[in-house]
């Protein structure tokens, strides 16, 4: 059971998005049309706390996707083999897109669900435009519900992430001189990276609001404080004054306070402090000034740098990309599950591949097995509940009410436990599916048939993941570590050499390449940590290596934003490239590199420190088998 709070507002909104189309259909005297439009209501399940500019685009494409799979399901319904192939393709494509773009959400499951439920409707290819149009209308209603919050707090998600930046900054300053410093440092880098991505997603070039500018400047200043602390206190064994963390936490609380309220607390100071601590307090004074600065005086230019979709998909479309490999596996196993279901001549054969998809949606093999257990238990009970509901032959507004309640409860519990969510989602999906097919119900037959379908789907998903994905991530770690280190070497070269007038490091091909490799490496390590069986010694070795590469990547990206950087001599640059190539070779050959001298980089001491840390992290224990 996760400890995250219940999302009450999102749960009610999701229920509203699913039930309103049915109510509208009833008002117009056509329940069937309302139920079909309700499939578009699944669009709301892809709503997360992301900037409204990004949310609008994301949900718009989800609506288009739902409409497309509805059309495909209607046309392909008479041809079982085509249904199986399309189901696999839909799953693979959606998994790839969501994985490459790192989009939070239920990924492929609802696209496959809508496609499957459409194929289970009365076969009538002539209704393709009608059904697709109804789903589009239902999805558009979800889009409107999801965007209502923009009228009340248009920069709410951006404020939330900046608040977390300052809370993590306070925690990082509190951790200096303690054993928690490395973990706090990693969390700080992670939330700063998330803030960069969030602000980039929420940025609209033709609409720069004063609030957005303030948040952007606050993020930059948090990074300035963090980098100063990193350069001056990273090796300190003494704790910093607690007043630093307390003051910054006061700032964090005040970020989203309304106009007219006090925007910052009193800056606390210790009685005695050295010069470095005094300078750190001076930077906190600057943060206080930014929070209290009249909006008209904030004139810092906003410089947003983000990877283009072409670069992102190009990096993910690689034989060693875990996103690409996972999408192929997902599509293949889903296709096989659908073919087996059709061969068994099951009445509602699509529940087999649908259960398979639900199980395989786990991020790792371990989470896949956990989902299988939770899915099995939750679904069996959910099917019994659904059978009882359907045996009562609900109709009209009762169906709309039940879907409202079941969808809302599903969204409440999905953050707590997948099995509990399946307990309510299963009867919800079955109620919608069976209501659109207008079938007759026999409690014992219906319950046993659906349970058999689910168990078959779960088993196929587990077997497929076990056979195809056991070592697909961990076996690729050395290659991607090597690739990432070499991309960092290329970035080092352009950062500290003369590239001519007008060169923008933050827009360089080398930076984009390193970002792509870092993203793939982080995803790959997380996937490897969930494999069965897991080589714990190997993962323990790769963790500090991945950790050091990630932190070095953050420092290099921050350096790329600097307006002034030193130009190193040819000898110093050659030594840097030599050190990086030695580390890259050691990683791919699974050998320990010798510790080499790293040239001093004036103004950027942390880069030098982390290159040394990476060399030490790659030192291999002879007892470790990779």
Account of the protein in words:
Mean pLDDT is 84; it is low at 260-264. 69% of the residues lie in helices and 0% in strands. It folds into 3 domains: 8-151 and 311-469, no CATH class; 156-297, no CATH class; 474-617, no CATH class. With 626 residues, it is mainly α.
Q: What is the percent of helical residues?
A: 55-70%
Strand fraction equals under 5%
What best-fitting shape do the alpha-carbon axes yield?
Answer: globular
Distance between the termini: 34 Å
**Spans where pLDDT lies below 50 across 5 or more residues:** 260-264
Structural class: mainly alpha
**Overall radius of gyration:** 27 Å
The total domain count is 3
Number of DSSP helical runs: 23
Query: Main beta sheet, described?
Result: none
User: Average pLDDT across residues?
Assistant: 84
Order of helices and strands: HHHHHHHHHHHHHHHHHHHHHHH
**What is the number of beta strands?**
0
Oligomer: single chain
Offer a concise description of the structure:
The protein is mostly helical and 626 residues long. The protein is 69% helix and 0% strand.
Please supply descriptive tags for the structure shown above.
single chain; 626 residues; mainly alpha; 3 domains; globular
List the SSEs and their pairings.
Layout: H1 8-27, H2 31-39, H3 52-76, H4 80-101, H5 109-119, H6 128-147, H7 156-175, H8 181-202, H9 210-233, H10 242-254, H11 275-292, H12 309-316, H13 322-343, H14 351-360, H15 365-391, H16 397-414, H17 418-437, H18 443-469, H19 477-495, H20 509-528, H21 536-561, H22 570-589, H23 605-617
């Amino acid at each position: 059971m996760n400890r995250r709070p219940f999302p009450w507002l999102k749960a009610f909104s999701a229920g509203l998005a699913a039930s309103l189309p049915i109510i509208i259909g009833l008002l117009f005297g056509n329940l069937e049309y309302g139920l079909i439009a309700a499939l578009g209501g699944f669009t709301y399940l892809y709503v997360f706390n992301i900037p409204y500019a990004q949310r609008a685009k994301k949900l718009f494409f989800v609506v288009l996707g739902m409409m497309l799979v509805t059309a495909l399901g209607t046309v392909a319904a008479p041809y079982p083999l085509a249904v199986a192939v399309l189901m696999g393709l839909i799953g693979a494509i959606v998994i790839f897109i969501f994985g490459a773009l790192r989009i939070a959400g239920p990924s492929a499951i609802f696209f496959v669900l809508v496609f499957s439920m459409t194929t289970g409707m009365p076969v009538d290819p002539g209704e393709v435009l009608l059904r697709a149009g109804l789903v589009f209308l239902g999805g558009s209603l979800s889009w409107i519900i999801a965007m209502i919050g923009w009228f009340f707090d248009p920069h709410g998600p951006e404020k939330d992430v900046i608040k977390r930046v300052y809370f993590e900054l306070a925690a990082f300053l509190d951790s200096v001189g303690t054993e928690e410093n490395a973990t706090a440092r990693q969390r700080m880098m992670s939330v700063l990276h998330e803030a960069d991505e969030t602000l980039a997603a929420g940025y609209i070039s033709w609409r720069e609001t004063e609030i957005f500018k303030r948040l952007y400047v606050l993020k930059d200043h948090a990074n300035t404080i963090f980098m100063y602390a990193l350069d001056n206190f990273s090796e300190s064994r003494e704790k910093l004054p607690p007043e630093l963390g307390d003051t910054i936490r006061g700032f964090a609380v005040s970020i989203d306070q309304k106009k007219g309220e006090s925007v910052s607390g009193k800056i606390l100071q210790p009685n005695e402090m050295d010069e470095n601590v005094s300078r750190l307090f001076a930077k906190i004074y600057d943060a206080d000034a930014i929070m209290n600065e009249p909006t008209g005086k904030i004139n810092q230019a906003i410089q947003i740098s983000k990877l283009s979709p072409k670069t992102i998909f190009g990096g993910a479309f690689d034989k060693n990309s875990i996103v690409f490999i996972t999408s192929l596996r997902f599509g293949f196993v889903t296709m096989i599950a659908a073919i087996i279901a059709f061969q068994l001549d099951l009445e509602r054969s699509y529940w087999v591949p649908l259960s398979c998809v639900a199980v395989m949606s786990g991020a790792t093999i371990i989470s896949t097995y956990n989902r299988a257990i939770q899915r099995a238990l939750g679904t069996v009970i959910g099917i019994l509940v659904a059978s009882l509901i359907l045996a009562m032959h609900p109709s009209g507004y009762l169906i709309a009410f039940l879907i409202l309640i079941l969808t809302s409860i599903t969204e409440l519990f999905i953050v707590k436990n997948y099995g509990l969510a399946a307990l309510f989602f299963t009867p919800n999906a079955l109620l919608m599916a069976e209501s659109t097919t207008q079938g007759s119900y026999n409690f014992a037959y219906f319950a046993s048939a659906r349970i058999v379908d689910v168990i078959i789907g779960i088993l196929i998903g587990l077997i497929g993941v076990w056979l195809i994905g056991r070592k697909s991530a961990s076996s690729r770690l050395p290659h991607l570590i090597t690739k990432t280190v070499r991309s960092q070497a290329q970035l080092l070269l352009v950062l500290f050499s003369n590239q001519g007038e007008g060169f923008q490091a933050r827009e360089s091909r080398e930076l984009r390449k390193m970002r792509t490799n870092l993203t793939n490496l982080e995803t790959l390590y997380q996937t490897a940590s969930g494999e069965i069986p897991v080589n714990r010694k190997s993962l323990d070795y790769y963790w500090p290596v991945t950790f050091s590469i990630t932190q070095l990547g953050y420092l290099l990206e921050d350096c790329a934003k600097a307006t002034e950087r030193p130009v190193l001599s040819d000898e110093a640059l050659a030594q840097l490239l030599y050190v990086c190539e030695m580390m890259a070779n050691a990683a791919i050959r699974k050998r320990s590199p010798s510790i080499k001298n790293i040239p001093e980089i004036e103004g950027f001491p942390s880069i030098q420190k982390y290159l040394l840390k990476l060399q030490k992290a790659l030192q291999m224990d002879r007892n470790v088998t990779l």
